């Protein structure tokens, strides 16, 4: 449960500098993804031999607008949320996505995200729950008539729960987090982007610490 939403966000993978390139002779304190970014940035100035010797490098490159260096690292997330959310999510073009298919997977059980605004309101909650059950009832009836899942799914709601794997490089991830944690963003999206922000601040504090 994130901010009242029954959604899930997990970090599946994050880029790291190869251990064969990582200096073993000094304490770097840098996470492996930040070591890669620092390597790329130092290469521009011919100072890769100083890798890990000063902790403020990445922030100073970001401050001067030398942002392409953070594109070398990416993170991959598992997200379980509504199709309302993923419809907005995939508008972010500089990313890669793999989403649970409603053509090949039957949505046999009602699985949907209930906005807390509706869960809190008794009458609104009742109307919403009935709409969900009616939609799934219609879906199952169509399947039982022999209609293919890819056609029967037209009756399923926006609230239908889905799963998606998304990969973004750190530059796009910063842009995404800034945009999608703002108060203007969809509350469910804010919840998901907020969790991604929390994770990335832990994983790469020099890249995401200012957000
Ligand atoms: C509060 C809010 C309300 C919104 N309302 C609507 C709405 O009513 N209707 C609607 O259709 N969308 C809406 N959107 C979606 C919005 O318009 C963007 O499509 C979405 O946020 C993706 O962001 P982005 O364009 O920065 O794309 P990303 O794909 O994340 O791209 C990142 C950056 O790369 C650059 N870039 C990428 N592609 C191009 C390109 N082709 N040309 C030039 N530069 C490029 C831009 O600098 C861009 O900011 C809304 C978004 C928000 C946050």
- List low-confidence stretches: none
Into which percentage range does the β-strand content fall?
A: 5-15%
* Average pLDDT level: 94
How are the strands ordered across the major sheet? 1-2-4-3
Largest sheet: 4 strands, antiparallel
Number of domains: 2
The CATH topology of the largest domain is: Gyrase A, domain 2
Ions, cofactors and other bound molecules:
flavin-adenine dinucleotide
Distance between the termini: 23 Å
So what's the overall shape? elongated
Number of helical stretches of at least 4 residues: 9
Order of helices and strands: EHHEHEHHHEHHH
Decide which structural class fits the backbone.
alpha+beta
The tally of strands reads 4
The proportion of residues forming helix, as a percent range, comes to 40-55%
Tell me the name of the CATH class of the largest domain: Alpha Beta
Which architecture of the largest domain would the CATH scheme give at its second level?
2-Layer Sandwich
Question: What would you report as the Rg, rounded to the nearest angstrom?
Answer: 21 Å
Quick overview of this protein structure:
With 211 residues, this protein is of the alpha+beta class. The protein has helices spanning 32-45, 57-63, 83-89, 116-120, 122-144, 149-152, 170-180, 187-203, 205-208, and strands at residues 8-14, 74-82, 95-99, 161-169. The model has no long low-confidence stretch (mean pLDDT 94).
